[in-house]
């Protein structure tokens, strides 16, 4: 039986919400400071004096994320590893072990530390980004100070829009993809937990001297993983018939956010199923549709963040119109494709506290 890669969904959701909410809180704090006194002479000098206070506010906002990264992630990764061990036991008809009796290897402890350091490291990025953006917004608006108050306000709005679009921080992964910080933390948490579960399964099979595994099958899978669904692989890479698991991982399987997993394979007993060409074509189309849903979610969040920083009447009207438009696009996509489920939290920027 395949070990689920969706272990501890609650923690993954919580991590996303913490950073998503942190972003809104910080956008709110920056916007309030910029807006206050924008028509008053000496505004730039007053705003520059707020930088230390802003930094302190941001540090307080990040405390919840710090607590999660130090405690709950560690527990979740260890539990995932142990669940992976017991999934292998089940595949080969063995009784599950008590979690307390399963030793977590050093490699998993290192994985936990890497994840904790990654999340802690984002805090420095957040502080730097917010401070730099705040200075830039003041500088942009100050250029228009001699022309008139409305021009200064519009310049500040333009700079705030750029800040909202960029977010409180981004992360570029090894493939060169740019992630919004909340989405990156969510992905990294989900992927780390999934990899721990898979490693637990693999380690247990090695102990049992069972070399073969089979890759799971999913609907609407991405093109990278599709060639490997239902494929039999060798953990050791020494089998004469089947390719090595590592070679397939090198080809992209178990990539960030990948939902695929593995099951122990017993020759003569396990019966792999191969998809037809029509099924693969349907999955390809389904994948494109799910990617459109993700795009809609990102765009709705973009305009909600812009709404958060709106200080001019024009910006307030534009953002309200754009949000309604993209929400309508999302409803139409969901209604047209019944296999989709609307995920409102992914369209949301949580209320600031």
Describe the protein's architecture and organization.
The model has no long low-confidence stretch (mean pLDDT 86). The chain has 353 residues and is mainly alpha-helical. It has a three-stranded antiparallel sheet with strand order 4-3-5. Strands 1-2 form a two-stranded antiparallel sheet. The protein starts with 8 loop residues before the first helix and ends in a 17-residue tail after the last helix. α1 packs antiparallel against α3, α1 packs antiparallel against α7 and α1 runs antiparallel to α8. The chain folds into three domains: 209 residues, no CATH class; 64 residues, no CATH class; 67 residues. The protein has eleven helices and five strands. Helices cover 61% and strands 5% of the residues.
Write the layout of secondary structure elements.
Blueprint: H1 9-35, H2 43-48, H3 51-61, H4 63-70, H5 72-91, H6 106-142, H7 149-166, E1 170-172, E2 178-180, H8 181-207, E3 212-215, E4 232-234, H9 245-250, E5 262-264, H10 277-308, H11 313-336
Antiparallel strand pairs: 1-2, 3-4, 3-5
Number of domains: 3
**Helix count, DSSP H or I runs of 4 or more residues:** 11
Q: How far apart are the termini?
A: 43 Å
Q: Strand share of the residues?
A: under 5%
User: What is the radius of gyration computed over CA atoms, rounded to a whole number of angstroms?
Assistant: 24 Å
Q: What percent of the residues sit in helical stretches (DSSP H or I)?
A: 55-70%
The main sheet comes to: 3 strands, antiparallel
Main structural class: mainly alpha
Question: How would you state the average pLDDT, rounded?
Answer: 86
The SSE order reads HHHHHHHEEHEEHEHH
Which residues sit in consecutive blocks of at least 5 with pLDDT less than 50?
Answer: none
Count every beta strand, where a strand is a DSSP E run of 2 or more residues: 5
Strand order, main sheet: write it out.
4-3-5
